[in-house]
Amino acid sequence: MNRLEIDGIAKRYRDVEALHPITLTLEPGITGLLGPNGAGKSTLMRILATVTRPSSGSLRWNGADVLRKPDDVRRSLGYLPQDAGVYPQLSADEFLRCVAALKGIPSRTASRQIDALIERLNLGPARSRPLGGFSGGMRRRVGIAQALLGEPQIIIVDEPTVGLDPEERVRFRGLITELARERIVLLSTHIVSDVEAAASRIVILSGGSVRADGPPGAVIGAYGNLELAYLALAGGARAA
Fold first, then answer.
1. Of 97, 98, 154, 180, which residue is least crowded by CB atoms under 10 Å?
2. pTM
3. d(CA 42, CA 80)
4. In the chain, what are the domains?
């Protein structure tokens, strides 16, 4: 079974402790990451995606030291940052083919995967249009598609459903739930209902520290629902 082990990972920016030492082990399934602005969610996700180096701690992918050999995990990684950009002059199809080439996916395999993702994410009618004319929600769907290219074993998505309408959010939850049967999925969102509906594990961050970690039922406890549990455990701040 795939394992991503986070041991004492911390991050300091000059005089600001953005992330206090965090220890978690991620295994196949959906881990929902909740926290207010400044909680450390994006910092943690960038570290796990090998975009940012931690100030201290260790990170291991199936026993291999990720900080020493980041390429080991990058080959298994699909990542969608919150501020992901696109090339406005390219069509969705061209953009996804460029991403597939950068990932080293053979052309025939890339074509098959792109066709399947475009269909699953309801991008078919717009696949040949320039991305510059896409709505925010459509660009987000293209971002989700690029993260899933190559059938990654670790999927890290930061606010993937921003700009999606309710029907598209349900479609995304179905897709990510299907993928998570054999893959590690770390999903950060401000939409508590998305986490409650899809996640088998919930981690709540606040002030750069873990405030709760466990199955939804255990995190909710006596609070009645996840929204109330979140408000209590994150110090009264709404998810963002």
1. 98
2. 0.89
3. 11
4. 1-76+153-240 (3.40.50.300), 87-151 (no CATH)
